[in-house]
Protein 1
Amino acid sequence: MPQTEPKISEAYRAGALPEGRNRYINRELSWLKFNERVLEEARNPNHPLLERLRFLSISGSNLDEFFMVRVAGLVGQVAQGVELSSPDGLTPAQQLAAIYEQSDRLMESQQQTWEGLRAALEESGLAVVSPDRLDEESAAWLRDHFNDQIFPLLTPQALDPAHPFPFIPNLGLSIVLDLKRLKDGRQIRELLMLPAALPRFLRIPGSESRYVTMEDAVMFFSDRLFPGYELSGSGTFRIVRDSDIEVEEEAEDLVRYFKSAIKRRRKGQVIRLELNDSLPDGVSATIREDLLVVGSSRALVHGFIGISDLALLCNEDRPDLKFPAFTPRFPERIREYDGDCFAAIQAKDIVVHHPYESFDVVVAMIEQAAADPDVVAIKLALYRAGRQSRIIRALIDAAESGKSVTAVVELKARFDEEQNLAWAAQLERAGVQVVYGFIEWKTHAKVTMIVRREEGAYRTYCHYGTGNYHPVTAKIYTDLSYFTADPQAGHDAAQLFNYITGYVEPGELSRISISPIHMREDMEALIDAEIANAAAGKPAALWAKMNSLVDPQMIDKLYEASAAGVEIDLVVRGICCLRPGIAGLSENIRVKSVVGRFLEHSRIWAFANGRALPNDGAKLFISSADWMPRNLDRRVEYMMPITNPTVHDQILDQVMLANLIDNEQSWSMSGDGEYSRIEPAGKRFNLHTYFMTNPSLSGRGKALKKSKSVPKLRLNRPRKAQS
């Protein structure tokens, strides 16, 4: 039977399609749009005040990291004369100009947001005040505290031709003071770097929650630092340094290289200079001349410098100003087996939805494996594990009890390199076989395999996760943990680890796909199948959830599918370089972003497979990968098909669908890259509230039969008008 040719839109067939910036959104500018959405949550009146403040601080730390890594790379390209354009057609210099303009507006919005929150917090009894507003008793405490705890740590440094400009660490906050000697009027200029050991905010003892910033305290007591001088002017500034680590392919010893690179990173070149607008022009000019390089930038700030530091105020014990406390559920299926993870997994595949269901189940499985005399081997791919890691302790215990333990420790996990080096050293001392993977690629897959002796044979238990083995982020990131004892999944996991540890390219895999080997091709084949279904008149659709969509090749494939009539719904939390809803190019593609109480992190995609979605016949996958060139070409990732009916229903009919129908914390993306908050037209639906208050499917076990069934979600989309 001859195949039907795909029905492609005329504009797409004719090749009369936009290119460059009319075809793709710039990656860096799209990220800034995401951070604007984070900042908007700080203005959301539906959130408690301290949660709004937390969103504001997150927008600040996000921006710091953006400059330390992404902008630093562009500055380096400009310095080297690189003019290679990004897929949207912008040169590095053009990107920097657009970034600086957009980030300056973002920083101005941050200051306005802080002023509004500061006033609202003060009305609620939590105030950041200047020292001159303190009563006599509080002022006396601050004076004594300054003399005893702050003064000894401060080192004034003169700024004049005889004293070279001192080194200032990354994100270091400094004060410049112009002083006049009282006896003869002589002018001096002094620099004070605030040591990292000093807190940014000082909490004043008493019943009221009052804080004074460290810089205000220092300037208030400047006469103690400079007796005989009068303060005539002052201001603060902060620097952001290049903090990325480039791995050289010829590095012979990866551990030694990273130890050295971490030290060098602390002295990276200045990428961003944030200056308080109260600084005298002469001081500002001197600082710029001494610190800035070609391509780097400065920002004049009217207000509080270092927005990320506001996170410290969120530790205040004010439950009335925070989200209601939430306790994750432990899967009842495992409780039914008296906490025996292996028995529960052997009986049936399980998916656990974090943070609604506790990450403790992952830890419990690994701790059980460490203590179980029938377990002979544990292999685990660590990307991020946090500072206080029970998982690391379990691996050490397992190795010390004689088990074969292999840990893939990713040294290239950005900003966790130092912690991962420390974990690697501890693991090696305990006898764990520590492997660092590929020099040029990151191992980003989150997989554990446990080999257990059962009835004279060996059975492999696996955990495939979309998130990290990190106990802190597991409480705020939404991720999926898939547990299975399927022999095919275990065989594939073994091949994945052999690839990482011995560079042995896998043979035929039964279930998973791996990047950078063939995941891209497998994903494109799935999209091609939907295009063929559309041509055959069958239902053709694609639903995908991810953190970022950047890869031009995948974007072009989605454009091709849209032109063929495939209905595409994308939930992309962060960067999205695809332009949705463009006639002849992407009119069948819709993009939304969810930003709320939890950070949406799971990667899920579903293909209609000729059936009307949602349907058991749909092909469903979870993954550790986003659709970015680095994930598909330069990282070790996995893509796992979900075939167990209960797990399939939970992920597709609950998790994926809930993301699509959320209308309380969702944003809709337009073809020009702008986002608008979705306003509920009818019934309101908050996906985070839904999962905090409704049971899941696969982890419920017998409890599901005893309770009323999990609510069915529905996606109601208006029918297209017939032409």
Note: The first strand starts at residue 126 and ends at 128.
Protein 2
Amino acid sequence: MKKYILSLFLGLTTLLQAQNTLSGKVTDANNNPLIGVSVYAAELNKSTTTDANGMFQLAELPNGELTLTFSFIGFLKQNKTIEKIQNVQKLDVILEETAFQMDEVIVSTPFTKLQSQNVMKVDRESVKTMQEKGTATLIEGLATIPGVSQISTGTSIGKPVIRGLSGNRVLVYTQGVRLENQQFGDEHGLGLNDAGVESVEVIKGPASLLYGSDALGGVLFFNPEKFALANTLQGDFGQRLFSNTLGSSTTLGLKTSTNNWKYLVRGAYNTQSDYKIPDGDRVTNTRFQEMDFKAGIGYSNAKFSSVLRYNYNNLDLGIPEDGVADQTTAKKPAFPKQGVYNNLFSLNNTLYFNNSKMDVNLGYIKNDRSEFEDSDVAVLHMILNTFDYNIKYYLPAIGKVETIVGVQGMSQENKNLAEEFLIPNAKTNDFGVFGTGIYDWGVNSLQAGLRFDYRHLISEENGILGQEGYFEALNKTYDSFNASLGYKTSFVEDLTIRLNAATGFKAPTLAELSSNGVHEGTFRYEIGNPNLKTEQNLQTDLDLEYKISHFEFSVSAFYNHIKDYIYASPTGVEIDGFQVYDYIQNNANLYGGEIAMHIHPHPLDWLHFETSFETVTGKLQSGGYLPQIPANNWNNTLKFDFTNNKWFQDGFATLNVSTTFSQDKVSGFDIPSDGYTLLNMGFEGKVKLGNTAFDVNLNGNNLLNKTYVPHLSRLASDGIPNIGINFILGVAFKF
């Protein structure tokens, strides 16, 4: 059957004559061939593996520069950049053994280097690793990365927070394009399903030079799953079950590739009941249902590479407003609730010239968001259409200097279709131009860049002056110059030092400029300010990394000054029983960092100990603290490796103790929170039954059934605890 389907795809494929073919052998330091080494050309979305003799071959390669990544479990990853591939027919590679597998290729920064070679510190985490921790949603997994947390509403809604900044200060990229989903609202979730996502890269700091407005606080860059190896057909199925919410998460994928063409499809379904708190009660209407579909088709040859991807996400989720009330295990959300539909198209292209190349990335997303009070008639219905483009030209290298220039922009339209308006009908247009370069010499790298951005926003007048829902017409323009400078070096062997300084900006959002009404999700009356200025910041980062065979230590520190920081402040006035919040501005400072250590003692090669600590403080320059700043966290994990070569492989067990400290450094309208410690355990391995191998994992989270209220929980004001003890069973296999 596999051969039949593969032959069908081959029959649809028009093959071109290969212009360049590269082959070689991959061995270890003792010249032993390595079998199954992954050889990946990210720009071409093309990959292969080494055979029984350690040999590999890639065809249809471009004439100019190409970077290949060689990766194998237990060995250091290597990037091999070939300047003139037409002059190279053979490439032999020697991989070095290591106890760690931490180095990854970073694609969210301009020059696609391994993290060890990157000037900017970027954290990369695979979705599989996050799922191994027993997380139910993608945002829960993100919150396990040091420096990243979430503003949550139970288990159904979560918004990412990077070093104390969230909302439109954190830009999300998926499938190579920006994700726009009305993220200004605290109750508006991420809007992504983890099925079909391979990994996430986290830039903790201003990335406005690379991405423009809304990247002032950082970027979450989600990498989609890779296509299948050339001339193969692959399928996979995964199922996870959750005891606390009586929930399940299912995914099914199929993909195939020829030398030139690539195809994939994936579906996922996630459903959860109201979550149970430690005393046994369920928090009413925290249930949700989610359907997700992804598809992709790609083509590459020696001249260009092109990938078209599509993602449809349908999310139906409840809005908890009654606390612990009706007790049910139903999956269908009750009123009030949200219905969110996302359609996302991305087209990623790379064009190859003799000594240079160009990336052309285009994206379109339609975000359809409705909120319902007590019937199927939406009280709020907003449609946000966004088209964005990102064009980068990689100039021919001049000696050891690499340079990129580019243009980037977005055209966005917001429409209201219901009687009530939270924000007006409006159109936004962004345009940016930038250039960045890197100079490498010895163990040193210097990277710098400049950028200019322009935003034009027009909104319509709506409603009756002086009444809820009235919006005056706006015609605003904003512009900003930004720059970045980074330096990486190794003063001594095994010690890497990074120092970065960058400016960033965020133009006021439509909600901050013009809100005038009660939001059904936040239960407060918000009033915008049309005179708000652009936020502008300067952040400095210092990162130290020390890494040897069985020990790794890193420390990162940052200081972030934000001019004209925008936030909602209570006025002390009520309208129809709802507290009124005005959007105002003040200068602000945020500072803190992360410390992490990983010990893999020899000869106890089966034992790992990982520990990390993260802290951030946010203050207004005029006095007082910023709202919604996460509490300090100390996370400790023991990992035990074990295996049985007959039927059980790659097994490990984990014991995790996560301590979140009390948070009393709060703004005048935040609520202080108490500290708490959670105990979690996990078990995972690969079970072999005949020719089929199953990945099995079992997690127990909050094993002591601790009653706790996270500081950034939107249910904290009502004293509603977070989820109690929860067991997660996962099974996945390939076919």
Note: DSSP finds five helices and 38 strands in the chain.
Protein 3
Amino acid sequence: MQAQQSETDAAGHGINAEEWDRLVTRLGRNPNLVELGIYSVMWSEHCSYKSSRRHLSKFPTKNDRVIQGPGENAGVIDIGDGQAAIFKMESHNHPSYIEPYQGAATGVGGILRDVFTMGARPIALVNALRFGSPDHPKTRSLVAGVVAGIGGYGNCVGVPTVAGETQFDEGYNGNILVNAMAVGLADQDKIFYARGATPGNQIFYVGSKTGRDGIHGATMASAEFSEGDEEKRPTVQVGDPFTEKLLIEACLELMATDAIQAIQDMGAAGLTSSSVEMAASGGENGEGIGIEMDLDKVPQRETGMTAYEIMLSESQERMLMVLQPGKEDLAKAIFEKYDLDAEVIGMTTDTGRMVLKQFGQTVCDIPVAPLAEDAPNYDRPWVEPKVRAPLDMSKYPEPEDYGEVLLKLMSSPDMASKRWIWEQYDRHVMGDTIDSSQSMGDAAIVRIHGTNKALAICSDCNPHYVAADPYEGGKAVVAEAYRNLSSVGATPIAITDNLNFGNPEKPATMGYIVKAIEGMAEACRALDFPVVSGNVSLYNETDGVAIPPTPVVGGVGLIEDVSKIATLKGAQPGDAIILIGDFENCSMGASLYAREWLGLKGEALGPSPRVDLADEIDNAALVRKLIHDGLVNAVHDVSDGGIACALSEIALAANAGVSIDIGERFGKLSALSFLFGEGTARYVVAAKGGEEAVFDLIEAEGDKVKCLYLGYVEEVGEPEISFVHDAQSGDATSLSLDTLREAHEGWLPRYMKGEG
């Protein structure tokens, strides 16, 4: 055995004094370097969720369609006809800041492996990106590198990138966020799990060779940044999408046989986490088993690699399997056909221990159970986030021209078209993408191959709401995903999440984590929209400055008949524009108007809108029925920028003018608040040929759903957005659609050229 390590050595590996005492007590001695490295990654925040685990248990994780919730590589839901959708979202934040291209690329590769590890063919990729202020000197290069990495990997591996979101805020100047989601399809009787390995079977290593890239990647992702941390590039993995494509095909071919007993992706912490997780969940009753591996048999692309390096490497495109007895030759033949390494590197045992050997010597001999069961589970101190004072709009002058306001909001960094980004992604490879949310839609629609069904997929988060009120903001994140799926006619089923926050050891930050989770959990319960998988990314700080609280949600819903959908693009001349939802349920607090037009920040922005979950349920049900019954040509949920921005996006998508009546009909609500105020449970729809059929259906719902006739899609003339102040006199504020489009679509290309 190697020399034993000290408490000082442990501190250098991110293990504190309390954890060190627990480790030594369970082990009965000081660990050696290999053992210390294994404990350090398995007990890291990234792998153990030690600051969030007790709070994550508040999430509902089941409904009638959930087959597998959290705890496996990805979540699994029943989509009928013996099929399942498998999906998950994960972060690659720190690596993408240090090395944007490879950090983003390997984030895509890693999330794909989480999905096809379970037997699913990946059918869609999603990304949720947050960058710093456009004025920050690093932002432009980070955008270019991250987008190139996502496109370079996803396009080459042949999976469409169909949905996503991109925001800019100075709060991400020192710590960008790159969250990647993948969705796959599988037959319900061909789903594979990490659990289920039994003693006496061979452990099979497949894929790329192990190198020194990515060592301590999980540990790095569990610590704050400091100035100069770009020097951590060796901890960033290097991806190869062409190898990943071969690995997908080889794994799916092997999965078509009965050769695999258990399978695990080598993701964070590489060979360590994959082997420990399979052993910890192994056995016929999940009581755990042992594992013994000969590290000399691990395929290596570099000479002289130590056991420590082999176990902690996060080299990409690798999998670990436990094979059924006698299936080794079958598995080897398949992987050799795809020119991939495939080696038996060990055996499962009944000892409950992890035993590693190198050069004939035992370099690790530790019990498996403490690595998982004894992982720290902290009840971090937290303080209730401060309630913001209401935003007093009387302090600010009324804008003279609503058209100028709309132009500024629609061309602001958050609201501006992200065409420059999504045109770099292949959205239609595989041939089943019906609609991509990238082009301003609410959710992507991907046909389930060979059927008339489809999945709707979206990604959502408004960090400004969460910063203003994490409980209401957490509810709003889930509710927006629910609305986006409903807006295309899908029945929402479940979500995956990616909780991005700062240092949980700070009580103020921990308060945001706790309250956001509780708000999200309440919304998930009320909407029957459970969490089936996800990721927590903490310590997103640089030099003590935390990112805005950013709990991202990826939603998945089912469309039973793809002929009964709605998108942004369908509005026709003569259609009536109707608001579904309470027009008074809106606020200027934490709004795009307050941020961009008034230039407010932080506490001055005021509180976020309140979320009425009963309205979310009723209004979404009505919208889905309107779509199903073919009464609407276009649907859009109302979110950032309020009704005015939602209508503008419908007009731009249809290339048709829209005329909206903003005369004296809003009661106590000002026209400004009506147009640009933000709220929840609201949609705008373009009703076919007029409003009568829609209002008849709404009336049949009783008083559960509120609605308001807004105006109509123009039939003649140059397309423009018109806000009519007085229909009798013809007094109106108008904005040319061409002018709006140039501003909306022009900002990002100009910025990336260095012109803006």
Note: The radius of gyration is 26 Å.
